[in-house]
Amino acid sequence: MGERAFVCFRYCLIAGAILLGISGAVVSIFAGYFIYQLHEYASLTPDNVCGSAATLLAMGVITCGIGWFVWQFLNFSNRGQVIIFAVTLTTITLIETSVGIWALVRHEQVDALPSTQHDEIFALAITDEKSTWNHMQSTLQCCGIDGPSDYRGTDAIPWSCCNTTNLANDTEGICTTLYKRGCQLVVLNRTKSILLHVFLLALCSVLLQVHNLEIPFIMNRYII
Description:
The protein is mainly alpha-helical. It folds into 2 domains: 2-113 and 186-222, no CATH class; 115-184, Cd81 Antigen, Extracellular Domain, Chain: A. The chain is 67% helix and 0% strand. Keywords: Membrane, Transmembrane, Transmembrane helix.
């Protein structure tokens, strides 16, 4: 009975190693995408919000590598190797738990940019980063930092601030309605949403690691 249980847990551990590698790859892909999203509108994105996603990306790559290593080289009848695998998996689980907490805490700390930086940011919005701002304003349906009034004193409000869904056919290219909300509020809400998704990704990964941890600890009883 003990030998049959050992064989059963051995195959479960192999399946767990494969699943571990796949989950690590998935975590890496999603974490990388979240980092890209946080950098997409870096002009208005608060500082130090990428740390949790970057750490989760690194842990995903490491987890993927560990899953491949276990599948290829782990001797499932060696108590020492099984214990090392369990300790490594426990360490990854604790780190990813910390990453999830970090993302959740940062989510609560995200706040608007200091007003002292607005002039500097807006100066770039109409010069060096003009194309980036045009993309941001048209995609997020916002205008300026706090609203269209930010463009007061400039030559013209960019077309990316125009709400084209309300344009009539006889306006001859004249914008009749501008986006009223500023981009800062939209980017802040977007950043909070991304951090919340980082937390959920870390939570899902931790739950999977905890499930995988049960197998080596149980299997260790049957190794002579």
